[in-house]
Amino acid sequence: MKETYVACEPGKTKVSPEIAALVENRKPGHALDAPFYISPEVFEADMKLIYGQHWIYVAVESEIPEPGDYITVDIHRNSVVVVRDDDNAIKAFHNVCRHRGSRLCNEHKGSVGNIVCPYHQWTYDLEGKLLFAEHMGDDFDRSRNGLKSVHLQNLGGLLFICLADSPPADFDEFKAAMEPYILPHQISKTKVAAQIDIVEECNWKLTIENNRECYHCAANHPELTASIFEYGFGYQASPSNQAMLESYDQLVLERSKDWEGGYGLPSIEIEHLDGRITGFRTQRLPLDQHGESETLDAKIASKKLLGDFTRADLGALSLWTQPNSWHHFMSDHIVTFQVFPLSAERTMVRTTWLVHQDAVEGVDYNLDNLTAVWNATNNQDRHLVEISQKGIHSDAYVPGTYSPYTEIYVEKFCRWYIERLTALINA
């Protein structure tokens, strides 16, 4: 079947002079102007130029383990169905019937033999071919009415889609850099232990900015900082923390040599959060206390380790992608996060916990223990971004200065965002 794509062409996307001026006049090293967080018009531009033109993380492949399993993902007005076909290949299609536009799959996840429109029963196979369309006449060509494909990439079990007609070509570079880090965790041999969606009453960029720094962690995240060192997330030496940061850097160096030399686990930082289309950062970092996992006591949450691991204290591999995800890979489980804008001031955050496919709840892991740290952290972060959103509405708001010691990755996210808007507005 000839694949077809729905285009979101940057050259045809017009923005108002006001938005163009906001983008052009953004002051480096400072937070964004208020309209970036509250304007419906800026939100529409974000959906067309950021979420509509870049690789968006949507799922892990273990969410659809068997042929016929599917999930649906909503990105603003676009619904996409991601399905595993009969040959175990994973495909993505616009979740729209080619007849009169009915949504095809109306649940978040499920399993089907074929994809059947609930309106008039047009039937598509798992490769998107139209198999059945009754009462359409002899001149009707089924081969020209298959489902519209969506570009999909699989990065070691992490699934990304792009709605654009021509997706960014640098994904292959991202994949080549990241697969050696991710593949040892063997996502394809995991299962979903829990998945929780929360809605934050804030702009999506505040959600991402909050994730890109740990300046706030010690004061707000007692559960998370029981296991993680906040210094691993953008801290630079300052007069107040230089000695402690030097000690931490030495710990990172020693553990990285151990993980890389003894276990073949890449650990050093790769940081491309700005200056490229598909921005990302990764690093394997040591954990505090027992150093095993992101739990309240920093011990493993699941006795069944991932992949071929025989050792629990392998730190936590962190991966961030622009514009919508972050991930934590440990020896015993993985926690992965997606950010989906709902409106200018509402954002959905989906958190998924993965364990080994053979791990048994109540035997190998306790679900409350597995999810305790990030359930608490997500709720704390929700409060922080929501009070930020409220404050930005004030007439007194002016973009504040980012800390050069703790918020460099926030600045890199904003720089990437402005770079991408500028490039696509001017395309």
Automatic annotation (TrEMBL):
Cofactor: Fe cation
Domain (Rieske) ranges: 56-161
Domain of life from the UniProt record: Bacteria
PROSITE patterns listed in its UniProt record: RIESKE
Keyword Oxidoreductase annotated: yes
Keyword Iron-sulfur (UniProt): yes
GO molecular function: 2 iron, 2 sulfur cluster binding; iron ion binding; oxidoreductase activity
Keywords carried by this UniProt record: 2Fe-2S, Iron, Iron-sulfur, Metal-binding, Oxidoreductase
Pfam families named in the record: Rieske, Ring_hydroxyl_A
InterPro entries documented for this protein: Rieske_2Fe-2S (IPR017941), Rieske_2Fe-2S_sf (IPR036922), Ring_hydroxy_dOase_asu_C_dom (IPR015879), Rng_hydr_dOase-A (IPR001663)
Family named by the database record: Belongs to the bacterial ring-hydroxylating dioxygenase alpha subunit family.
Protein name, per record: Rieske 2Fe-2S family protein
